[in-house]
């Protein structure tokens, strides 16, 4: 969720979440939503051509072309995301809310896997549970047993 798309863009607009110039971006089990460019009043999540593998969800696709390679893509259901903040872990995250179509919607055939094997933890370092959720936040995951968030105890 950045506003990097508008600044430095040859067209001067677009792609608050993803801005692709001259090639394809391939994504798998990714959530791209609630991104804005330079004080824009409405979300501007993507600009350019995106190859969709696995299952992907977007908040707004008006600025991009999505080519389905494998799996599917769709729009994120309304009311699916909370606000950016401290929801556990070392970085701020945007939580999935109950009822989101991103919950348990990821594919196991490469979505919850990478070249090293299964991706068992979310961005907060919380364990993935059940079928993985689309995006960096696992709904219903529980935190680690750390006492201090900065890792001081270890």
Task: Provide structural commentary.
With 154 residues, the protein is mostly beta strands. The protein is built from no helices and eight strands. It has strands spanning 18-28, 31-32, 46-53, 55-58, 64-68, 72-75, 113-114, 117-118. The strands form three sheets. The protein has a three-stranded parallel β-sheet with strand order 1-3-5, with no helix packed on it. A three-stranded parallel β-sheet has the order 2-4-6, with no helix packed on it. Residues 1-12 have low confidence and may be disordered.
Question: What is the topological layout?
Answer:
Layout: E1 18-28, E2 31-32, E3 46-53, E4 55-58, E5 64-68, E6 72-75, E7 113-114, E8 117-118
Parallel strand pairs: 1-3, 2-4, 3-5, 4-6
Antiparallel strand pairs: 7-8
How much beta, percentage-wise? Answer: 15-25%
- Quaternary status: single chain
Output the helix-strand order.
EEEEEEEE
Kindly name the structural category.
Answer: mainly beta
Query: For the terminal residues, how far apart are their CA atoms?
Result: 31 Å
In DSSP terms (H or I, runs of 4 or more residues), the helix count works out at: 0
Which stretches of 5+ consecutive residues score pLDDT under 50? 1-12
* Helix share bin: under 10%
Average pLDDT, rounded to a whole number, is 80
Determine Rg (CA atoms, Å).
16 Å
Name the overall outline: globular
- Please provide the count of β strands: 8
Largest sheet: 3 strands, parallel
The largest sheet has its strands arranged as 1-3-5
């Amino acid at each position: 969720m950045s506003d990097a798309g508008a600044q430095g863009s040859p067209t001067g607009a677009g792609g608050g979440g993803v801005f692709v110039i001259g090639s394809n971006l391939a994504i798998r089990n990714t959530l791209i939503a609630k991104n804005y460019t330079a004080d824009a009043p409405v979300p501007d999540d993507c600009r350019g051509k995106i190859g969709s593998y696995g299952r992907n969800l977007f908040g707004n696709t008006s600025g991009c072309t999505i080519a389905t390679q494998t799996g599917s893509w769709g729009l994120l259901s309304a009311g699916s995301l909370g606000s950016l903040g401290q929801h556990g872990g070392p970085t701020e995250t945007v939580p999935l809310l109950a009822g989101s179509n991103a919950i348990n919607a990821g594919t196991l055939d490469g979505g919850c896997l990478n070249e090293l094997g299964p991706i068992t933890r979310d961005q907060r370092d919380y364990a993935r549970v059940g079928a993985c959720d689309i995006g960096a936040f696992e709904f219903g995951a529980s935190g680690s047993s750390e006492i201090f968030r900065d890792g001081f105890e270890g």
